Amino acid sequence: MKRHNFSAGPCVLPGSVLQKASEAVINFDNGLSLLEISHRSKPFVDIMENARALALELLGLEGKGYKALFLQGGASTQFLMVALNMLEKRAGYLNTGTWSDKAIKEARIYDDIYEVASSKDANYNYIPKGYDIPSDYDYFHCTSNNTIFGTQMKEFPNAPIPMVCDMSSDIFSRQLDFSKFDIIYAGAQKNMGPAGTTLVVIKEDVLGKVSRKIPSMMDYKVHISKSSMFNTPPVFAVYTSMLTLEWLKGLGGISAIEKENEKKAQLIYSEIDLNPLFKGFATKADRSTMNATFTLANEDLKETFETMVKEAGINGLNGHRSVGGYRASMYNALTLESVGVLVDVMSELERKA
Ligand code: PLP
């Protein structure tokens, strides 16, 4: 049976990417597996360089003073790397969910953090607006898409200071002016590849302004100077990410996938709004195109709905424990057809109830 993977991550990957990646595990270069070759060998150095270049190209950041790195430790390590590399006195953070909150907690270890605004008061079901960003702070940090709560920033402030953004759950899904940001980071495991690598895109001229000593593995400048090969890179995750970025480029890039993502989001949200058995969690204006969060209006239907979901081959629909209900994650490689299957189950429930 065809499976429809709505998991919040690790994500769904295109079939062609999985096929090529699995072949490379068996035989990549003259009978050797991708996992057996030296990361310093030309075939892998080419992969790393291609992946870095493709990331910048797709984001429209080539030739604009940015460097792309594929690092390890997940987006969670970026919470502290950003602070170590950028925080001298004080930074401003927008608190829009669990991941922003964690980023704030890590940065607070190093210095003073000011929450410019927070939506914690409403269990993060909206994106705060109309806040000020002080011009004498070191940087402003925000989370473009809140994976757990299903909210997404539709607009970004014009910060008078460097902007840092955690784009883990919506990178490469929609066209933005990426040059607004000085540091963008994203764990691979939503829209790029398997867990194990994190893309970090940095405008080089924002670095080197803090007085603290930074351990080498935590220092962006060290990673840049070593072309993202300071230590042994996660070869499989980088290779698979490169294949996904090639796939995306072949489709027509971010603007092409954005159209598909909008269609998918429109399909699910119109069902949530029209079907009286479901209630959306996030405020309408701030709804995410990547993660749609919703609950059942009548919990008595839980078992029936979940059985129908399972029978339809739908996977990964459970909501995060801090929201409850359901979360349909619709990353780039999930098809409109899969969203249609879920919507059919939801409307079938209405007919049955
Ligand atoms: N930031 C966001 C927006 C996320 O969705 C996640 C994970 O889901 C993280 C950070 C943490 O990423 P990692 O598990 O790679 O550390």
TrEMBL record:
<dbReference type="Pfam" id="PF00266">
    <property type="entry name" value="Aminotran_5"/>
</dbReference>
<dbReference type="InterPro" id="IPR015422">
    <property type="entry name" value="PyrdxlP-dep_Trfase_small"/>
</dbReference>
<feature type="binding site">
    <location>
        <position position="99"/>
    </location>
    <ligand>
        <name>pyridoxal 5'-phosphate</name>
    </ligand>
</feature>
<comment type="pathway">
    <text>Cofactor biosynthesis; pyridoxine 5'-phosphate biosynthesis; pyridoxine 5'-phosphate from D-erythrose 4-phosphate: step 3/5.</text>
</comment>
<comment type="pathway">
    <text>Amino-acid biosynthesis; L-serine biosynthesis; L-serine from 3-phospho-D-glycerate: step 2/3.</text>
</comment>
<comment type="subunit">
    <text>Homodimer.</text>
</comment>
<feature type="modified residue" description="N6-(pyridoxal phosphate)lysine">
    <location>
        <position position="190"/>
    </location>
</feature>
<feature type="binding site">
    <location>
        <begin position="75"/>
        <end position="76"/>
    </location>
    <ligand>
        <name>pyridoxal 5'-phosphate</name>
    </ligand>
</feature>
<dbReference type="InterPro" id="IPR015421">
    <property type="entry name" value="PyrdxlP-dep_Trfase_major"/>
</dbReference>
<feature type="binding site">
    <location>
        <position position="40"/>
    </location>
    <ligand>
        <name>L-glutamate</name>
    </ligand>
</feature>
<dbReference type="GO" id="GO:0004648">
    <property type="term" value="F:O-phospho-L-serine:2-oxoglutarate aminotransferase activity"/>
</dbReference>
<keyword id="KW-0808">Transferase</keyword>
<dbReference type="InterPro" id="IPR000192">
    <property type="entry name" value="Aminotrans_V_dom"/>
</dbReference>
<dbReference type="InterPro" id="IPR022278">
    <property type="entry name" value="Pser_aminoTfrase"/>
</dbReference>
<dbReference type="InterPro" id="IPR015424">
    <property type="entry name" value="PyrdxlP-dep_Trfase"/>
</dbReference>
<keyword id="KW-0664">Pyridoxine biosynthesis</keyword>
<protein>
    <recommendedName>
        <fullName>Phosphoserine aminotransferase</fullName>
        <ecNumber>2.6.1.52</ecNumber>
    </recommendedName>
</protein>
<feature type="binding site">
    <location>
        <position position="147"/>
    </location>
    <ligand>
        <name>pyridoxal 5'-phosphate</name>
    </ligand>
</feature>
<feature type="binding site">
    <location>
        <position position="189"/>
    </location>
    <ligand>
        <name>pyridoxal 5'-phosphate</name>
    </ligand>
</feature>
<comment type="function">
    <text>Catalyzes the reversible conversion of 3-phosphohydroxypyruvate to phosphoserine and of 3-hydroxy-2-oxo-4-phosphonooxybutanoate to phosphohydroxythreonine.</text>
</comment>
<feature type="binding site">
    <location>
        <begin position="231"/>
        <end position="232"/>
    </location>
    <ligand>
        <name>pyridoxal 5'-phosphate</name>
    </ligand>
</feature>
<feature type="binding site">
    <location>
        <position position="166"/>
    </location>
    <ligand>
        <name>pyridoxal 5'-phosphate</name>
    </ligand>
</feature>
<dbReference type="InterPro" id="IPR020578">
    <property type="entry name" value="Aminotrans_V_PyrdxlP_BS"/>
</dbReference>
<keyword id="KW-0963">Cytoplasm</keyword>
<keyword id="KW-0032">Aminotransferase</keyword>
<feature type="domain" description="Aminotransferase class V">
    <location>
        <begin position="5"/>
        <end position="339"/>
    </location>
</feature>
<comment type="similarity">
    <text>Belongs to the class-V pyridoxal-phosphate-dependent aminotransferase family. SerC subfamily.</text>
</comment>
<keyword id="KW-0028">Amino-acid biosynthesis</keyword>
<keyword id="KW-0663">Pyridoxal phosphate</keyword>
<keyword id="KW-0718">Serine biosynthesis</keyword>
